[in-house]
Amino acid sequence: MKKILAVVAALTLFTACKKEDHGDTNVHITGNIKGFKQGRLFIKKYNDSTLVTIDTINVDGDSKFESHLKMDSPDMLYLVIDRGTTESIDDNLMFFAEPGNVTIDTKLDYFYAQAKIKAGPNQDKFAEYEKTIRRYTDMNLELVAKNMEATKQGNATRLDSISKAMDSNTKRRYLFTANYALNNGKYEVAPYIVLKEIPDINLKYLDTISKSMTPKVAASKYGKVLNEYIKERKKEGI
């Protein structure tokens, strides 16, 4: 009996220590990068205008990884992979994290393109937004290519037509983003996409979006930044 009690006590102590290791963290990130067995991963976020590392994960023989973080407000994070000597632009993965569980599954060769992310509702809304906005991005790239070709040909009429199409595409992108933020004021991702995508939109739209935010979102990191930004623009009269 004494031996059993000793084992139970030891297991209890071990469990308690395991919990203490994570302190008061409230975000649990787990993931798997198929094909990545050696190297480092960094979890980063923007602090003011500087991208800072908040966790470093060493990968040695196992493509699975794990991280525990403390977050005071939902935030856009970046999973950055260190490929060593290999040069690649596909090494940065954005995800909107919030208290709870986050799972990231992807592949070394298609780190960004084939990533599957499960997080909270903010990530779902961000993914939904990105899926639609990609159409406007692709259209703009097509128009840029056509503009380059028309410039080589010296076709002024064609250039004027392309310029109008680009302006129209930009306006539709802005309008979609504004409406998306307006209709999703209960999610912290709303002020984030406004600040990232349309900070120079007319103040009346920013005011309307600000008023659509719930008190919880208005008190969040990006909600505070957006409202402060609106105040500064009003003060400067722009």
Structure report:
The chain contains 7 helices and 8 strands, in the order αββββββββαααααα. By secondary structure, it is an alpha+beta fold. The protein folds into 2 domains: 25-119, Carboxypeptidase-like, regulatory domain (Immunoglobulin-like); 123-236, no CATH class. α3 (156-183) packs antiparallel against α4, α4 packs across α7 and α5 runs antiparallel to α7 (221-236). The longest helix has 33 residues, at 121-153. It starts with a helix and ends with a helix.
State the main characteristics.
238 residues; alpha+beta; Immunoglobulin-like; 2 domains; four-stranded antiparallel sheet; 8 strands; disordered N terminus
Write the layout of secondary structure elements.
Blueprint: H1 2-21, E1 27-34, E2 38-47, E3 50-60, E4 64-69, E5 75-82, E6 92-97, E7 100-107, E8 116-118, H2 121-153, H3 156-183, H4 189-197, H5 203-212, H6 215-218, H7 221-236
Parallel strand pairs: 1-7
Antiparallel strand pairs: 1-4, 2-3, 2-5, 5-6, 7-8
Helix pairs in contact: 2-3, 3-4, 3-5, 4-7, 5-7
